[in-house]
Specification:
Number of strands: 22
Strand content: 25-35%
Strand order of the largest sheet: 3-2-1-4-5-6
Radius of gyration: 23 Å
Number of helices: 15
Helix content: 25-40%
Length: 451
Amino acid sequence: MNIIIAGCGRVGYTLADQLSREGNEITVIDTNYKALESVTSECDVIGYEGDCTSFRVLKKIDADKADLLIAATDQDEKNMLACLIARKVGKCRTIARVRSPQYSEEISYLKEELGLSMSVNPEYAAAAEMVRLIQVPSAFEVDTFAKGNVNLISFVIPEGSPVSGRAIMDIRQKLGINTLICVVQRGSKITIPGGDFVLKENDKISVSLSLKDANTVFEAFGVKVKKIRNVLIAGGGTVGYYLASMLLKLRINVKIIEKDPERCEELSELLPGAMIINGDATDTTILNEESIENMDAVCSLTNKDEENILLSLYANRVAKAKLMTRIHRNSYEDIIMDVPVGTIISTKKITAEYITRYVRSMQNAFENDVEALYRIMDDKVEALEFKVGQRTDLAGKKLKNLSIIPNTLISAIFRHGQVIRPGGNDEIMAGDSVVVVTTKEGLGKIEDILG
């Protein structure tokens, strides 16, 4: 596909890298020459210096021949205007990054008026992901499929776990519930396990199960379960606002520490149910005054990675809280991989997942679609939901008779309101939602799982 990306900041760079690696022809446009030079030297893309809201510039880079324009600058108004002009230039499909709470509330109207194919609010999506983690506090990753009916929950097998040294088939029989272990990460090695795979302490595993069974599974694996009632949020920016708003609706107590006094006043009006503290979240005196040691979760969401890392490290030392740390820079994610800062929250990663899912669905020649896409286990595994169309070649064939590509597992089938954890005698039918985990990138339709 021919794709134009307007803006090559963190989000634009991540998208350019991911979509070019999937075989798309990418043109990146930005007014910042240094940012363009960085992305063109490191990714297989074409760069153009110019204003993405200029009709003349979009004509010059052949926007009339593009299949898709993604506006990912740091200004909502600029993104929406670029999409509007691109539609006038060539009638291509358009995606706008829209972050403002004001615009988000009016997005259905704006999409219709501007002809947007899709809008992405990275900050809202990041907040929603953190809420899922707070609702399942023993997990470090929770991804949902089939409108919330299928969940892929990732957690660490603790030391002294009763399942350590036991084969997966034995564990499943003992549990007696509808669950499936889909992925195991041991050190840097990723495995899509079979029934004879033996689990060990400190393995990171992803399990397909319903939320109502989560506590039963955690208890069987020796994972401590603690309900979250008190949350401390460092940083009252857009992500912090969205997160606090969602948590208050769940009747969870929220404290927000924010440096800017004017922003504190705004938050006090927007979030009357939250406690707003004006101060520096890396000041240990303030943290101790606000009883950080009694918090069930600490979310480090300031605009500075260093502050977020330091706060999470301190919280890890003084509290038994669930930690979530927002990281902006790519280089930091690799450095802190084994540092105890909890779950890494990356808005650029979330945005890339949303848009990559849409691009793959555009590429499909069949009726089948990628309905959801997540990257799990340090981005080494893709978890995808496919909506199976009427013309699938897989219909009516038992799974044990299919030649499925290596390191790929069908983890769940959702049919007529029922979740099926598939075995060899199960079949895929037209209309099903099918969840697949794989180490292979670029799957666009359900037939791609076949060898």
